[in-house]
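Checklist before submission:
- one chain only
- standard amino acids only
- sequence pasted in full

Submission:
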Amino acid sequence: MDDSVRVLSTLALKGAVARLAEAYRATSGVWIDADFAPTLALLERLRGGEEADLVILTREGLDEMIAEGRVAPESCVDLARSYVGLAVRAGEAHPDIASEAALRATLLGARAVAYSRLGASGILFAQLIVRLGIAAEINARAVIIPAGFTAEKLVTGDADLAVQQISELKQVDGIEVVGPIPLNLQTPAVFSAGRMMGAANADAADHLLRYLASAEVAPVLRETGLEP
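Returned file contents:
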């Protein structure tokens, strides 16, 4: 194998990939050259001609890439499941979000809620507040970021609640995860990986795919807020 493999990954796996990169290089001699962005942004970049050896996307995003002939279907593996959660600044009281009614009241009582425009979590949240009948009230004072980590807005004081995949919330220091949005109000996102059809380093991509899907990686996925 060559000494690096180019990976384009959804933000939800950033913590896990960063934790695994050094151990993987020590055992395989291969460096993970990774770039992270929301799935929708990655799909746009891939359709624009950006090259990679391996991609980690939502399952829906990966299926689109397979249908377009960009990802080898036989290479694909499901890696992790993730739930959307809420966070507050470290030291702040944890609001009640255990039920639909409690979540609705907590969101309406927030000074500002931060969520992402492009990520799977942001899409889910935008639909959720419509379902709860509070979209106008929340969006009137929401902090909607184009990409990146919503919990950073807690640290800067721009928001007092942040919504994102729990694995993404955990990437930010100085915050505390309250918990997941009630599970009856969300469908977990499944993140999957596959080798690009035009991979310059196909052997390294296949080796990394096997590693990411192995039992060895499962504890790191759990520690970073994901379910293997």
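Reviewer check: The chain has a mean pLDDT of 95.
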